[in-house]
Amino acid sequence: MKARSPLNQTATLAGVIEIRGILGAAVANLGARIVGGEWKEGESIPKEADLVDELGVSRSVIREAFRILGAKGLIRSRTSDGTRVMQRTGWRLLDPDVMDWRIQAGDTESLLQDLLKVRLVLEPGVAFNATIMATDEDRERVKTTWAEKQRVFDDDAGDHEERRQDFIDTDLEFHRAMIATVGSEILEQLFSVIEAALELLLDLQMRAKGYTKKMIGMEESHVLHRAVYDAFMSNDPLAAQEAMRALINRAIEDAQKGLELIKKD
To answer: Is the pTM value of this prediction over 0.70?
Structure first.
């Protein structure tokens, strides 16, 4: 299995659904090894009896772990053919566990690039439709989240790490409020899954700008967010859409720079 990069040595995705105890440990062990490529697509993984001995668990735990991993699209068990790793195209790539296992396997770069592509396709349209569809209540929520984001940006006192985390939290809340304005539960759930890895993405952007302990280079991000907010509050859907597109495109550029910095570490 590949070693973790500096970005993900301490990172575990928020939102990972934990299965506790012996079963959870077995699922995490096997899932990380599958996603990490210990067994290739189409290959058989060890038999139940072998895994019972290796992991020191009961056969019923292994069977339940197989069931859970099968539900995530990673494996398929057949009496005549054993248990094999499924093609990657069938994996539930939006499953928080699968995303976390990709990070553990050192696949952070492709995961974040995927997320950026999703954001570029999704969020400009969200900004356009949110501006059209927003109720007074929706606008008040966005206004409140923006005010908090502005407060964090302006407050240069206190602990830098705490401020850094607040910057990330208020950024996510702003985007969450915009998406909630559209009024689609499916869209909100999709974003909640993506959001599980967005903190890593924001961390990467900060690294690219030189912000590790102090607020450095975040001014441009704040200005780009302000353009989205102003267009939204001015009821200008086209301007909101283009402002969001510019914001995500800048995020893509910053993330690429951040990934290059990590490769040099």
So the answer is: yes
